[in-house]
Amino acid sequence: MLPLVALVGRPNVGKSTLFNALTRSRDALVHDEPGVTRDRNYGVCRLDPERPFVLVDTGGIAGSEEGLAGATARQSRAAAEEADLILFIVDGREGASSIDDEILAWLRKVDTPTFLVVNKIDGLDPQTALADFARYGFKDVLATSSAHKTGIDTLLARALAALPKDGDAEILDDDPERMRVAFVGRPNVGKSTLVNRILGEERMIASDVPGTTRDSIAVDLERDGRKYRLIDTAGLRRKGRVEEAVEKFSIVKTLQAIEQCQVAVILIDAVEGITEQDASVLGAVLDAGRALVVAINKWDGLTDYQRQQNEALLSRKLAFVDWAEAVRISALHGSGLRELFKAVHRAHASATKKFTTADITKAIEIAYETNPPPVVRGHVAKLRFAHPGGENPPTFIVHGTRLRTLSDSYRRYLENFFRKRFKLVGTPVRFIFKEGE
Ligand code: GDP
Ligand code: GDP
């Protein structure tokens, strides 16, 4: 499982600024894709690509117990209690306040390891800034300026040292023939109905994956001679007494499931169309670089006229993932499932395709000759050669000079050129540009 880190602190200390600094994708192209919505409360920190973790920006933890503020406070506390690590953020400029003291009193009752992060130290003498909080008695104290991104590397290193490692072994160490698929989507789109439909089919063997805990439920199954591991989704969880507690963290579970899978199937409710929450789950799939299939569910509930209307609207809203296949299904009636599985296989095959250095270098040469990048301030980028940099997603490392001048649109051109040439469907594609002769 991806570890969970919670940001706790009173309003205005810089939690969201820190959240952004930690979760902003290095890959600006992925991040700035129009149509992607960012969840402002949950994100994955990938500053160390080997050790991603989920970050929760809890809202106001100190607040009255009544009304909306009370609900927010309770939720924040629950998130913090569930976390592997709490970062207690305070304002180094303003010093300790009574609300900080209240939060501290609460933190002392919680069993979660906690670092004190004294933020906004830009322009201050760090010793003085820290002194005001010495009486809090924290062993782990960090000084940051999230606005200027100072102290973030140290914070990251300390956090990673405190977080559990290799929690995914039980889910990931398995038969390479077994494809890991996650069914994701917002509540009520039909995930449980779909998963139960798939598991309920004849000629299929399903079993719980041994060693999986309450938090990481996975099911293995065979279908038409192929092996799958369905990774935790709300759909796999038995609904019941823990439902309420679990539901609150379904966003965290979704991020974790996306991380663990090779192919993410996102369910969309055909009747309701694409909501902001759907766009943010799609953004999480893109950030993780996972293969993607869009399943438009509840297709049975639409009239012919609605279907036509729908078709146009969906393709417009899904334009930013136009490389992903969209399949119309009805989980309720079990229609479209064969097509769905075919699309999953195509996406998986593309995502795990093997390339040689010769193939990729040739592709770069042809792409470059067909359409060289434009001259920028008297300079033109040169692409010299390329080699494979990994799979799921397919990653291409391109070497050349003046690569900084390559525009986003030229990068998109390369991506589309590669998609066509290598027939890649259903997977993001990454380019890493390396400057040098
Ligand atoms: P939150 O309410 O805790 O999420 O705080 P925000 O991230 O929204 O920040 C509150 C204000 O503090 C904003 O005006 C930020 O620009 C500012 N701020 C955040 N981090 C820093 C910092 O490291 N240094 C300075 N000088 N200002 C900061
Ligand atoms: P989940 O929260 O994503 O797991 O969604 P559920 O599987 O619990 O489904 C939510 C509701 O949508 C239930 O009332 C289902 O019966 C209904 N539903 C699910 N799939 C379909 C479908 O294909 N067609 C129709 N008409 N209703 C569906």
UniProtKB/TrEMBL annotation:
Keyword set includes Repeat: yes
A GO molecular-function descriptor: ribosome binding
Binding site for GTP 1: 9-16, 57-61, 119-122
InterPro entries, per the entry: AAA+_ATPase, G_ENGA, GTP-bd, GTPase_Der, KH_dom-like, KH_dom-like_a/b, P-loop_NTPase, Small_GTP-bd
Xref: PROSITE patterns: G_ENGA (PS51712)
Pfam families per UniProt: KH_dom-like, MMR_HSR1
Transmembrane segment boundaries: none
NCBIfam families: GTPase_EngA (TIGR03594), small_GTP (TIGR00231)
Protein name in UniProt: GTPase Der
Gene: der
